[in-house]
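Quick note —
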Amino acid sequence: MNIYYDKDADLSIIQGLKVAIVGYGSQGHAHANNLKESGVDITGGRDRFPRPRRRKPA
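Predicted structure written out below.
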């Protein structure tokens, strides 16, 4: 198993670009906020027609 830390990431690769976070459920918003707080220009998107969630049988 590999463990990565902040020092292992090179944000300069995406620093001058607009990065899109599309989908990924509730975690997409958190990932976008982390990138935004790191100074990356981000935009987000959602599915126009999300599928209804299925309920688990009781």
